[in-house]
Amino acid sequence: MAATGSGTPKRDTYRHGDLRNALIEAGFELARQGGPEAVVLRAATRQAGVAPNAAYRHFADRGALLHAVSQAAMAEVARTMEAEQAALPHVPDAAAAARGRFRAVGTGYLRFAQEEPGLFRTAFHVPGDMTYATDDTAAGPGGKTPFELLGAALDDLVEAGLLPEDRRPGAEFLAWSAVHGLAMLLIDGPLRGLHAAQAHDAGHRLIDMIERGI
Questions:
Q1: Is the CB of residue 56 less than 8 Å from the CB of residue 19?
Q2: How far is CA 128 from the centre of its chain?
Q3: Cα distances (Å, whole numbers) of residue 154 to 26, 85, 207, 212
Q4: What's the pTM value of the predicted model, to 2 decimals?
Q5: How far is CA 170 from CA 19, 104, 151, 155, in A?
Q6: What is the pLDDT along the chain (214 residues), one digit of tens a residue?
Q7: How far apart are CA 201 and CA 154, in angstroms?
Q8: 209, 201 in Cβ contact below 8 A?
Q9: In sequence order, what DSSP letters do the residues of 13-37 get, joined into one string?
Q10: Is there a contact between 120 and 77 (Cβ–Cβ < 8 Å)?
Q11: All domains of the chain, ordered by start, with CATH?
Q12: CA distances for 166 relative to 153, 169, 177, 183, angstroms
């Protein structure tokens, strides 16, 4: 800060080393608290400590910032799913290990939705196509997006002999639809009043159903 002639503090020009990422981080925190509706350029610039016009050097409009924040939130979904898989106990049986990884994809997804509803809503505030589902900016530490993690888990089931190869095509859409539907019912629908134990049980029973169905 510098002082003006009147003695009133005046802020020096702020030059952030990586303003684009600073704005995404600010938008990410706004989304955590209020979902996609809370991600607005003026609020993000205020949180980042820069003038509102500075955002337009990196984002053409609010939609561009929201898309970047959505991808960052999607990467956090992937991170949680990977953590769920990493926490699995080691089992020597390949089929049991494949089942565990598949189930962890679903339980990690549901856990994120319940623990971070604002980010979960933002992650799926996306364009009306599948382009984002394999975009590197939506990938977790292991380099896969949530959709790719699900696909890899299904491929593992095929390799382990648990999922017939002729039933593999399109299986990710069915599994994803079911788990996402429960996630939305738990955070925004009539199931949001369930106790944690009931929600946990519902998730495991749904994954049982998906496993049997595919």
A1: no
A2: 17
A3: 35, 14, 13, 13
A4: 0.87
A5: 40, 19, 9, 12
A6: 334 344 433 333 344 468 999 999 999 999 999 999 999 999 999 988 888 888 888 998 999 999 999 999 999 999 999 999 999 999 999 999 999 999 999 999 999 999 999 999 999 987 666 776 778 889 999 999 999 999 999 999 999 999 999 999 999 999 999 999 999 999 999 999 999 999 999 999 999 999 999 8
A7: 22
A8: no
A9: PP--TTHHHHHHHHHHHHHHHH-GG
A10: yes
A11: 69-213 (1.10.357.10)
A12: 16, 7, 20, 28
Q: Is 170 helix (H, G, I), strand (E, B) or coil?
A: coil
Cα 179 vs. chain centroid, distance in angstroms?
14
Element (H, E) at 3: strand 2-3
**Pairs from 206-211 (Cβ < 8 Å, separation ≥ 24):** 206/106, 206/178, 206/179, 206/182, 207/103, 207/106, 207/107, 207/179, 209/178, 210/106, 210/174, 210/175, 210/178, 210/179, 211/99, 211/102, 211/103
- 142 and 82 Cβ atoms separated by less than 8 Å: yes
Q: Note every long-range contact of 164-169, with CB atoms under 8 Å and residues 24 or more positions apart, other chains counting.
A: 167/214
- Unique residue bearing structure tokens 């702020």: 14
Nearest to 30 by CA among 21, 22, 20, 40: 40
